[in-house]
Amino acid sequence: MTAAADPVKLMKQEVGRAAANLIQSNSIVGLGTGSTTAYAIQFIGERLKSGEIKDIVGVPTSFQAEVLSKQYGIPLTTLDAIDHIDIAIDGADEVDPQKNLIKGGGAAHTREKVVDYLANQFIVVIDSGKLVDKLGSVFAVPVEVIPMAVTPVMNAIAKLGGKPELRMGVKKAGPVVTDQGNLVVDVKFDDIPDPVNLEKTLNNIPGVLENGIFVNCADKVLIGEVKDGKPVVQEM
Ligand SMILES: O=C[C@H](O)[C@H](O)[C@H](O)COP(=O)(O)O
């Protein structure tokens, strides 16, 4: 007897494939982080291997993206060696109807923000469970903080009305440490009426490196859904 396929995995796979199919030969590609983008990286690698596309170079947004890209044979570069990014593919933790995002569930939002904002076209890949009417409805806003500033930053965030929590490791004692060697504070807000201003306000707290609110950045959102037992991709 075969086990029933996990619908969330099916949605992520399908949306990852759809995003990988947007990549054209001779392009510089921002490679995002997370379980959904991992499928896009896999399918880009498979298209390269089969000769369907050629001359792709990737800019990874995290250690995870770098490892996966190497595993699937995607040549990599750095921002010092290029003058543009044609297209970036990345996941998200929440997406509102204006295509504003919360990212950073994998603590990679700082590098992701650099790469995704630089791209001429930024494609977001999500399963339908990530859609919200208002940002912050479910997910907390991840904030990357330099370690010596964590207490004053958490105090400043509490004064703004947020509930800050230091992100702790899983299968690792102590806090999560980012690819930059910093800490992550997850901040739950009862309401985020103005994401544009909240993004700026959080980044203005001394000691904050970057937060996971992405506004006016996504060009297209590919949404994986399961209809009649089959995965389909919608576009926003
Ligand atoms: O830091 C991680 C990233 O922002 C991810 O893109 C985001 O958390 C979505 O990840 P997933 O596709 O695994 O839900």
From TrEMBL:
Keywords: Isomerase
Pathway recorded for this protein: Carbohydrate degradation; pentose phosphate pathway; D-ribose 5-phosphate from D-ribulose 5-phosphate (non-oxidative stage): step 1/1
Catalytic activity reported: aldehydo-D-ribose 5-phosphate = D-ribulose 5-phosphate
GO annotation, biological process: D-ribose metabolic process; pentose-phosphate shunt, non-oxidative branch
Amino-acid positions noted as binding substrate in the UniProt annotation, renumbered to this chain: T33, G34, S35, T36, D90, G91, A92, D93, K103, G104, G105, G106, K130
Gene Ontology CC, one term: cytosol
EC number of the protein: 5.3.1.6
Xref: InterPro entries: NagB/RpiA_transferase-like (IPR037171), Ribose5P_isomerase_typA_subgr (IPR020672), Ribose5P_isomerase_type_A (IPR004788)
Annotated NCBIfam families: PRK00702.1, rpiA
Listed PANTHER family: RIBOSE-5-PHOSPHATE ISOMERASE
Record's protein name: Ribose-5-phosphate isomerase A
